[in-house]
Structure formats: structure tokens, C-alpha cells
Amino acid sequence: MWSEIGKWCLDVAKYVLTAGILSAVFADMRNGAGMYFVAGFIFIIFAVSGIILLWYSKKIKKEEEKLCKD
What residues have CB less than 8 Å from 38, skipping those under 6 apart? Predict the structure, then answer.
């Protein structure tokens, strides 16, 4: 379950980054820096969350395998 949520967070991070870049490119560039900052901040939040959740799910799987062997 945690791995699926982690994958979802990474997908959302990619979509936010893509949307932020495309919006800044196609929109009026007067506020482009603000758009990059907001998109980058949201990207970092979701990317770090996804990586942590994937790491956590792998850790849980290893512990479960260890308990099954014992």
C-alpha cells in the first residue's frame, strides 16, 4: 500500500513540474519566476514524500521477509 502511495506522489510531482514549466512558457512571463518557485516547491514536497514512502515500504517488506524466515 505504501509503495503505491509513493508511486502516486512521484507521478503527481512529475505532473506538477511539467504543468509549472508549460504554464510559465505559454503564459505571460512577467510572473514566470513565481510560477517556477511554486511549482518547484510543490514538486519537492511530493517528490520527497514519494521517495520516503517507497523507502518505507521496502523497509517493511524486508522486515516481513525476515520474520517469515524465522
Answer: 20
